[in-house]
Write a structure and sequence with these properties.
Main location: nucleus
CATH superfamily: Histone, subunit A
Domain Transcription factor CBF/NF-Y/archaeal histone: 26-75
Keywords: Nucleus
CATH architecture: Orthogonal Bundle
InterPro entries: CBFA_NFYB_domain, Histone-fold, Transcr_DNA_Rep_Reg
Subcellular location: Nucleus
Radius of gyration: 22 Å
Largest sheet: none
Helix content: 40-55%
Number of helices: 5
Length: 128
Amino acid sequence: MVQLTNISDKENVNMSGKNIGDASSKLPLSRVKTIMKSSPNVDSIGAEVIFTVSKCTEIFLQFMSLGGLKRCNSQKLLDYKGIAELVNTDDKLNFLSEVLPRKMTFREAKKLLQTPDDDDASESSDEA
């Protein structure tokens, strides 16, 4: 378990508790700032906030990538199916289920649209 210390210690710790070295971000901070400022509710953003959001985004993307890779057929190639499977099986990622739905064939989608409830509703509207 990771024990967080005072932020002023300037020590960067990853999820496993190991020191990750320099305090650099892999994402361009100027882009992160631009995205954050695109919200109408944001007036000014401090450098610490931009860096923190950038690091959190990196960690989230790493979590998604590794989790999706575990669900892929090939352990060397990350594909949409792996990410979508992760999103649709992990309750914490449920908020992404509409953005990353499971792939389905046209036949499966058509069958899904022809549920018995829809047939009953159309019959009752035809009788009226």
